[in-house]
């Protein structure tokens, strides 16, 4: 039986230049490998050490990227190691199989959203009516599944985020603040549901996971073992569970540590 490793990408395994500065400002410059280029410019990186560990992990386990990114955003990433057979995109809204969205999974997700939460248009309208142009920079919709705002974080009132979270809770949505982005995501739209589907299809009897944001909490709890870095929303919330390990490292060093933990657990599991 294969070992299944599902991991968030941004600020867990890969890091933008801004995330590097935020999560580890005093670290001596590591040797980096660019894994994403956007509009002709390098955007995201892993360390050379992490690149080697990712390659080894691809040989030891079934590695499944699990991201809130849209399919288009995910497909800009070129990770070291074997191309993933499966990938979870749009926070579980799309399950890619050999790079193509699985239509059966997409239909199941669509049906759940229609029956269990308020429509996207209602949430968009609320955001448009309440967000202040003083701190709002962009309002985006991802895959017609969820929405997010890009904000000027120092100007963003904490109270507004709390009020939005309470409003969304009553309509079957969740709110997550990640860096300069505020995500509003339907509760049925989860990485964990997609993880269970991949485990079912592959017959995996051991699942491992990692992530840094509140949107990753369900993924960590769904896996047999999980890890979170020393930075991010989960660290700030002091998120813990018996099966989840909080690593002390922050930034790219946390990415390296998590990959080592994955590799050790995958080899033992096999």
Structural class: alpha/beta
- What are the low-pLDDT stretches, counting only 5+ consecutive residues below 50? none
Under the CATH scheme, the architecture of the largest domain is: 3-Layer(aba) Sandwich
* Count of beta strands: 15
- CATH class type of the largest domain: Alpha Beta
Going across the major beta sheet, what is the strand order? 5-1-13-14-15
The sequence of SSEs as H and E is EEHEEHEHEEEHHEEHEEHEHEHEH
Strand proportion, as a percent range, falls in: 25-35%
Q: What would your notes on this structure say?
A:
- The chain is α/β, with parallel strands linked by helices and 270 residues long.
- The protein has two domains: 3-110 and 189-269, HAD superfamily/HAD-like (Rossmann fold, 3-Layer(aba) Sandwich); 118-186, Hypothetical Protein Ta0175, Chain: A, domain 2 (Alpha-Beta Complex), CATH 3.90.1070.
- It is built from ten helices and 15 strands.
- A five-stranded parallel beta sheet has the order 5-1-13-14-15, sandwiched between helices. Strands 9-10-12-11 form a four-stranded antiparallel beta sheet.
- A hairpin with a 2-residue loop joins strand 11 and strand 12.
- Helix 2 runs parallel beside helix 10 (251-269).
- It is globular and about 50 Å long.
- The mean pLDDT is 94.
